[in-house]
Design brief:
The complex is a heterodimer of chains A (748) and B (331).
Chain A (H helix, E strand, L loop, with lengths): L18 H5 L15 E7 L5 E7 L1 H4 L4 E5 L32 E2 L5 E7 L2 H10 L1 E6 L21 H4 L10 H7 L2 E9 L11 E6 L5 E5 L4 H11 L7 E4 L15 H13 L3 E4 L14 E9 L5 E13 L11 H5 L4 E11 L12 H19 L3 H7 L4 E2 L4 E2 L5 H12 L11 E3 L2 E13 L5 E7 L5 E5 L8 H12 L7 E5 L15 H25 L14 E4 L2 E4 L2 E7 H6 L6 E7 L3 H4 L5 E13 L5 E11 L6 H20 L5 E2 L4 E2 L17 E6 L18 H4 L1 H13 L15
Parallel strand pairs in A: 1-11, 9-10, 13-14, 20-21, 27-30
Antiparallel strand pairs in A: 1-5, 2-4, 2-6, 3-5, 7-12, 8-9, 8-11, 12-13, 15-16, 17-18, 18-26, 19-20, 19-25, 22-23, 23-24, 26-27, 28-29
Helix pairs in contact in A: 9-10, 9-18, 12-13, 16-18
Chain B lengths: L4 E4 L3 H10 L3 E4 L5 H6 L7 E4 L8 E3 L5 E4 L4 H5 L2 H6 L1 H8 L4 H6 L2 H6 L5 H4 L41 H8 L2 E6 L2 E6 H4 L18 E7 L7 E7 L10 E10 L2 E10 L9 H5 L8 H11 L11 H17 L7
Parallel strand pairs in B: 1-3, 2-3
Antiparallel strand pairs in B: 4-5, 5-8, 6-7, 6-8, 9-10, 10-11
Classes of the chains: A alpha+beta (748), B alpha+beta (331).
Chain lengths: 748, 331
């Protein structure tokens, strides 16, 4: 039983508790932990895409004074034999890539050697001196050219979180053929790379007893320690992984990246501390958002009732793993047509396995579906928002379950009102200022509201302050802050009396931080363990002489203002300091697990929703697009901290704009290599691209998702943005652009 | 990046002598491009001669009524210089259209002329590139060439010059003052950068070891009718797909002098004297601007991903001329 939370700090725009550390440079990132006698490793990347390494000649590099070793597949240490040892928590079905495994080259930029030297500069120079002879084979990297090889993905545990499309329902072909109103289109999206500001880096501190302390850039220290202990066959007790801060993740840190392998290998072989940091170019040599080709067809009756939905996607994966994401399922969850066919296939190519990237699959699929919805609205001569409302449902027909909560209708209403949508003239090219055509577009966003199991520890210390910890991550989202708030409110303490720590494998285990589940997952664990501390405090209270809490049950008490109180008589109170003083000079310490309430959750579908409204100005002659304003209204359950929450949504909106108009990892298929591998040529939105952005959080109560009622906000901000922009461009110009990114040449 | 030795002096002649003594040396000023290229293993100087202390840091009047920009004046100090803003606003506008404030604070005017192409293949040592490694081939020709040249290219190289500042300097007919072992000389801006031909490894007409000491702006600065218009894939911090430096002199509605230079389309800022001459004596209107645009783009050749630049360039020229003539809003 849970006692209702007295929300003192939850729901308030508390500043980030780690803000000062970050802006003063005190917050340390993986490549900033300086340990004595540190050696530096620089990775050599394959210049070819497919084939074999015939030979290495490292003699020039090794002849330099201060170069310690050049590690290759030829001289690497013995490693785990079986694929299973290389599987991490986010590994798709298949055989994970093994760095320095053998002479085979599987993709361009594959790490093929590590040069370790006394200084970074020396290692970098020595790396240029290593000569590599290759035997090249013909590669296949072009998705469009290999679509005929598309096949169903292999099944695996990944299916649990990323369910394959449901079986067709009804008879799409027949109904669609007869529909009076229908649209069909093909949507091509480019590959993208996460490109967090912080480069992937690992500093391994080689301790005197041979134990390893590893500072890693990761979205889950547990994932890193499992990988290291399995691959190198080291006992858990000999390894500790820390990642207190992360300079952006976006999914790129959901799998251990190869610098972790390299740094650990070198440290163990050289028996000294080693740091390996990737270059920006090397940030394009592991997971990415896959290129996709989608087809969407929608059919409706003349009144706008949708009765037919088709959505298929073909997506690239590597030739060694079947990376999947949920691209095509969304329409079947969001809308109620009775005739639905969804299909998802993979095209294995000579690339590295794609990797979850903010709203993986969701922003891809919704960017096609919601453009098709706009097209259908125009086909019907119906306002695009009215079409969504006409086809509104509180039921998820894919799972055939009601939503635990779905305040999307309120998102539409509040978003439309704030934006001024009702005054929209539906006619394309109906608004103009000087050379600029002005357009308004809207789209729906959707993401899952998941929860995982996680553990946390809470310690009410003898000085009355609370220390709470869990081996989760704060990838910039505000985990430190919201966990501090949850802990503070659960035990009625001010924020300043609570210290929340994360990112250390010595702490209780938590899953990788992704999928928008950290607030729900770790939040529940933190709430649960603080309640356990509260229960221990109640026992101590009962044992006080003449205790007024003697007959009190857990349900009867509440915490506020540093005191435990009787709910029905708040003046009956005892301070937490008094209670911990009764504990024989010891802190009150509890460890506990926060578990999803499967019994409660199984009867419902759980999701966050958003409605996005966008205004663009398109230069009629020059094709340039400026997103002059955008409003996103989000239904994401309880908002723990409107300030960090707003930042999350703003970040998603900015990225959505970036995805719609700018981002593309360009591969030259002659080389099978991403060519714009730097931040000058891989364009992400800059300040000058961003104008008026507005965020609304709609009230949404949900006691199914978890006791806190939180759904997570990491992904939802990006999901609807690209489609809303594409739809606004249509309204401005009358041109329907289905491929992303939409650059000026598409509009000339 | 290879190891290199480092030398600093505060005298121009010492710097030039030092450079002459080591053929694989390079001058370094702001380093905003050279250091990147060294880190990417594209440039490998064995000796760096730091010229940031040379007395070339002032903007001063020339006797002919023009303005002299010391080679080591930063891009930022140039763009915000009162004289430049008053007399050569086109130059100020062009500089501020490039890079970021941080880069403009470091980058020098002389260095701006010497920045190298942003061609993806030039930067990636795993791919052939005639500019980086003569004779290895041009990967862009049949590769990804969205940002590449449509004018004056060759089968050996289709790279573009990335500068914004240089496009304005070309339109203003600046002169580049250089000094070397053989003494001082002045290079007209149109002759400073060169087309790739079959030696795309050579970007400009500097003799080995020559040092840029100043950029001379002529008295005629087109302060009344001008526009630098840059089109790119995001609103800031991106190199030009196409840019236009347009400068006019007008009497009534009639054009009495015209300069048009294009950026992002060729191995050097692109001018066509006949296109400019065709405007003189004509009224400033869209038809005449369009005719000039056609002349400027004559002979343009697109490749797989950049053919759109031909039409785009024409439209940007028409717009920029219209804005320069104050017939169109500049917002």
């Amino acid at each position: 039983m849970s006692t209702p939370l007295v929300t003192n700090t939850i729901g308030k725009p508390i500043n980030r508790v780690d803000g000062v550390e970050k802006v003063t440079g005190k917050a340390k990132y993986a490549a900033e932990f300086n340990v004595p006698d540190l050696a530096y490793g620089v990775v050599i990347s394959s210049a070819i895409t497919k084939g074999k390494i015939k030979s290495f000649d490292a003699s020039d590099a090794l002849s330099l004074e201060g170069v310690l070793q050049v590690f290759t597949h030829e001289n690497r240490p013995k490693l785990a034999w079986f694929d299973i040892s290389y599987k991490d928590q986010d590994a798709p079905p298949g055989a994970p890539f093994r760095p320095l495994h053998n002479a085979t080259i599987k993709y361009s930029g594959q790490p093929i050697a590590l040069v370790v030297a006394e200084t970074f500069e020396l290692a970098r120079y020595a790396a240029t001196l290593v000569r590599v002879e290759y035997e090249e084979l013909t590669h296949e990297t072009d998705l469009e050219a290999n679509l005929h090889k598309a096949r169903k993905p292999k099944h695996g545990v990944a299916d649990l979180l990323k369910p394959p499309p449901p079986k067709p329902r009804g008879d799409f072909d027949r109904v669609y053929a007869e529909d009076p109103n229908k649209v069909a289109g093909r949507y091509v999206h480019s590959a993208e790379h996460h490109n967090p500001m912080e480069l992937f880096a690992t500093t391994v501190s080689y301790e005197k007893n041979g134990k390893l302390t590893i500072y890693d850039k990761t979205q889950g220290v547990t994932n890193s320690i499992l990988y290291v202990t399995q691959v190198f066959n080291i006992p858990f007790s000999d390894v500790r992984v820390l990642s207190p801060y992360m300079g952006g993740g976006f999914g790129s840190g959901l799998r251990p990246q190869y610098q972790l392998f390299m740094a650990v290998m070198a440290a163990r072989e050289l028996k000294r501390s080693v740091r390996v940091s990737l270059t920006r170019q090397q940030m394009f040599t592991f997971g990415h958002r896959p290129a996709t080709v989608q087809q969407v067809a929608l059919g409706a009756l003349a009144d706008g009732s949708m009765n037919a939905l088709y959505h298929d996607a073909m997506s690239e994966t590597s030739k060694f793993e079947d990376y999947t994401e949920v691209v095509v399922n969304w329409g079947g969850q969001l809308y109620p047509p009775e005739n639905v066919t969804l299909d998802y296939k993979l095209v294995p190519l000579d690339v590295y396995s794609p990797l979850d990237m903010r709203a993986p699959g969701g922003v891809t699929g919704m960017s096609a579906l919601e453009v098709a919805m706009d097209e259908l609205a125009y086909n019907l001569g119906m306002d695009p928002l009215q079409l969504r409302l006409k086809n509104y449902t509180d039921h998820d027909y894919n799972q055939n379950k009601p939503y635990s909560s779905k305040e999307l209708r309120e998102c539409y209403r509040q978003g439309a009102e704030r934006f001024g949508w009702p005054s929209r003239n539906m006619e394309p090219r109906s608004m103009k200022k000087d050379h600029n055509l002005i357009g308004w577009g809207m789209a729906t966003g959707m993401w899952e509201a998941n929860q995982m199991p996680a553990r946390a520890e809470a310690v009410l210390m003898v000085n009355g302050k609370l220390r709470v910890s869990s081996a989760t991550a704060d990838i910039g989202t505000g985990t430190y802050t919201i966990m501090t708030q949850i802990a503070a409110d659960t035990l009625g303490l001010p924020i300043s009396d609570v210290l929340f720590k994360l990112g250390d494998t010595d702490m209780p285990v938590a899953p990788i931080s992704g999928g928008s589940w950290t607030a729900a997952t770790v939040g529940t664990a933190v709430q649960t363990v603080c309640q356990e501390v509260g229960k221990s405090l109640l026992k101590l209270a009962k044992n006080m002489p003449d205790s007024l809490f003697k007959g009190a049950k857990w349900e009867d008490i509440t915490f506020s203002d540093k005191h435990m109180r009787l709910k029905n008589d708040p003046n009956v109170a005892v301070s937490l300091q008094t209670l911990v003083d009764l504990n024989g000079g010891k802190a009150v310490r509890e460890t506990s697990t926060g578990l999803p309430n499967a019994l409660k959750q199984r009867n419902f579908s759980r999701a966050t929703h958003s409605a996005v409204f966008v205004e663009v100005m398109v230069d009629e002659d020059l094709g340039t697009v400026k997103v002059t304003r955008a409003v996103t209204a989000v239904a994401g359950g309880r908002i723990l901290n409107p300030k960090t929450a707003r930042s999350q949504i703003l970040g998603g909106m900015v990225w959505g704009l970036s995805k719609a108009l700018e981002e593309e990892s360009v591969m030259d298929h002659n080389f099978g290599r991403f060519m714009n591998h730097n931040l000058a040529e891989y364009h992400v939105a800059v300040n000058a691209d961003i104008h008026d952005l507005d965020v609304i959080f709609v009230e949404e109560h949900d006691d199914v998702v978890n006791p806190l009622g939180v759904k997570g906000l990491g992904e939802i901000g990006i999901v609807g943005m690209p489609a809303a922009i594409a739809n606004a461009i249509f309204h401005a110009t009358g041109r329907r652009v289905r491929d992303l990114p939409i650059r000026l040449d598409a509009l000339l | 990046m290879n190891s290199f030795t480092y030398f600093r002096t505060d005298a121009v002649d010492t710097a030039v002598r030092e450079r002459a003594s080591e053929p694989t040396a390079k001058f370094i000023a702001g380093g905003t491009n050279l250091l990147d290229l060294m880190k990417e293993n594209v440039e490998h100087p064995t000796h760096l001669i730091d010229i940031t202390r040379l007395p070339l840091t002032t903007i001063s009047d020339n006797v002919d009524g023009g303005l002299r920009l010391g080679a080591l004046v930063t891009n930022a100090d140039t763009a915000y210089n009162e004289q430049v803003i008053q007399r050569y606003p086109l130059l100020s506008q062009a500089i501020l259209a490039g890079a970021s404030p941080q880069l403009r604070n470091m980058a020098t005017d002389g260095g701006n002329l010497l920045q190298r192409t942003r061609c993806y293949y030039f930067y990636d040592t795993a791919t052939p590139c005639n500019k980086r490694e003569p004779g290895s081939g041009c990967s862009a020709l049949n590769g990804y060439n969205r940002i590449h040249a449509i004018l004056g290219a060759s089968n050996h190289c289709i790279a573009t010059h990335p500068s914004d500042m240089c496009v304005a300097l070309a339109a203003l007919e600046a002169e580049v003052r250089v000094t070397g072992s053989n003494g001082e000389r002045t290079i007209p801006f149109a002759d400073f950068h060169r087309l790739p031909g079959d030696t795309p490894n050579i970007d400009n007409t500097l003799e080995p070891g020559e040092l840029i000491t100043a950029i001379d702006l002529p008295a005629r600065g087109f302060p009344e009718y001008f526009q630098y218009l840059k089109l790119r894939d995001r609103a800031s911090y991106a190199f030009a797909l196409v840019s236009v430096a347009a400068a006019l002199e007008m009497e009534g509605g009639t054009i009495t002098a015209a300069r048009i230079a294009l950026g992002g389309v060729a191995h050097k800022p692109w001018r066509k004297p006949e296109a400019e001459a065709a405007l003189v004596g004509k009224p400033a209107n869209k038809e005449n601007f369009q005719a000039a645009a056609e002349l400027l783009l004559a002979g343009a050749q697109g490749y797989e991903h950049n053919a759109f630049k031909i039409e785009l360039a024409k439209r940007v020229i028409v717009r920029a001329l219209g804005q320069a003539a104050k017939l169109e809003p500049t917002a």
